[in-house]
Amino acid sequence: MGYHRAGFDVDGSDIADRPNYPFPYHRGDALAYLAHLITSGEIGRYAFVHASPPCQHGCALTVGTNASQGWGRAHVDLVVPTRDLLDATGLPYVIEQPNGRAEIRKDLTLCGEMFGLGVIRHRNFELGGWTAARPAHVPHRGRVRGYRHGRFYDGPYVAAYGNGGGKPTVAELQTAMGMTWTDVREELTEAIPPAYTEHIGRAYFAATATLGAVA
Question: GO molecular function, one example (predicted)?
Fold first, then answer.
């Protein structure tokens, strides 16, 4: 949605059924689909690619709290094969990952407070084939609401992940994330706030306009 607001026509791909997705999308393995677009030449219809590989292999929660408690399961790191395919497209691209051990360049780090959102939700972005200025990180106004080690803390942000422990309602998540087109908790908690990708999309257009002016 953020890229749409920035001025892109958007196509998506997801291995899961996403009936709430507001744009055309291909259901299937995203890497297999991207490989098909490359080999068939259909990738030429596109100008820009965004990829959010599954983050469970390297995200801070998985490698920290969950691992220490013996929760979760083994996860495959798809960042490298994703990057290899993105490089093969010849197009400018973005790879998104949360804080943790994912091996991406942190060319941009965005936070909900930068956009006045009700979530912190730090996300890192590697920019392939283009560059953008890094915005300054804005100090947080308080804590994330919820229970920590049996104690409840209030604060101006909600926790956009999981269930229980003082987690927000679906309506609160929709408001905090800036997402009104889905009421599915999993989709809300897995998403990037649209404000982030709108920022990235506008930064890309600004960068290419500058290059055009120089040329």
Answer: methyltransferase activity
